[in-house]
From TrEMBL:
Keyword RNA-binding tagged: no
Organism: Streptomonospora mangrovi
Any Pfam family matching the protein: Aminotran_1_2
Record-linked PANTHER family: HTH-TYPE TRANSCRIPTIONAL REGULATORY PROTEIN GABR (PTHR46577)
Name of the protein this chain belongs to: PLP-dependent aminotransferase family protein
Keywords annotated in UniProt: Aminotransferase, Transferase
Span of domain Aminotransferase class I/classII large: 101-427
Domain of life: Bacteria
A Gene Ontology molecular function term of the record: transaminase activity
Amino acid sequence: MSMDPAALADRLGRWSAGRALAAALTVARGTVVAAYEELRLEGRILRRQGSGTRVAGPPRPGPRESTGAPVFLHLLEPREDDVVLLACAAPDAPPPALLAAYRRALARLEDITGDIGYHPLGHARLRRAVAEHYTRRGVPTEPDQVLVTNGGQQALSLLARAFVGPGGTALVEAPTYPGALEAFREQAAYVRTLPVGLDGFEGAVRDRGRRPDLAYVTATHHNPTGAVLPALVRRRLAAAAGAAGVPLVDDEVPADLAFPGQETPPPLAAYGETVVSVGSLSKSVWGGLRVGWIRAARPVIDRLGRLRAVHDLGGNVAAQLAAAELLPHVAELCGKVAAERRARHDHLRTELARRLPHWEAPPVPGGQTLWVRLPHGDGDSFAQAALRHGVAVLPGSGLDASGGSREFVRVHFLADQATLTTAAERLARAWTAYGAGDTEPGPPPSRALAV
């Protein structure tokens, strides 16, 4: 249905601005009004009664067949072939401690009465366990500062929806965890990058032209580089974020994965009240548990809780009770396998150095991945060649919102040493073929997120 230009101008708000623009462009006012309406329909401008019209940033995309995430769906699903999967870094089986925790949790379920099972903020027992987890680590925390989520990815999605809207800005490291990039892009946000460690952060949060709505960092065992921020850098980042009023999100999912003898600084939240901590048991226990959390100031948790309740009335109670059983012992559980993880890390680096001496694979103090620089070519095309030779690696371009890191691939070292040896052999053969011109197109990207 057509609309009278004057009525449309009333809907647009400040008609005088349209009159001025029309005069400047020497066009009819109706043309300007029509242009404004077209921009609104495309999602490029936002209008609110009494506050005029403002730029919304890039248009919101419609439904997509793919998130563009840099991993193939068949790398996450069960396979019948013998491809060695070094692309997705996560434990490949639930540990015995998880099974024991579930048995204790199921026993607790038998005693529950007067509880309909909906806990949008999380079960009280797990919220208390998360609060005690942070308090033990030097960050005094109360249960009402904790929101339980269905894994760390849901936590990032909630934070993106709460703080970063269309036309807003998320400040991230380059490279970084690709699931975070997808969460911010899903909100049609502009993603601004700084190097790993957020060097230049103070200037970025004071930038009046593009002040970030949220900043995201992995301070401990960074994914993918394995870096650990020193205490002084943590203090500086937290102080700058606090002074600018910018929420600083610290992804602590890999924080418990230190190698033996490696000390890590206190959590970033120990240095500032505006720090928002995201955690989960996906890397330290098992991804199938699907239990994560957000630790933040009470007003932030209240806001996120209201947002969560609109989309999800709460997580699986049995899983939360099992997580509450595990969390007091997570450091001990990780410590039991830390020596083996370091041995596998050392073994993979030795095999790569022997078979691919021109590759750069720096050691890391913990975590699960190596960030490998190729001497030439690019990670996207090499990943396709590697897959054809029976090993899956993650190309670096999908982890870098700046458009860089194309010469990198990410590989994990969680497999047993025999499997890692096989992987190195296949990578060497793939590299030889790649150097000889093996650059055939690989399979298309899927909906799956890299982990």
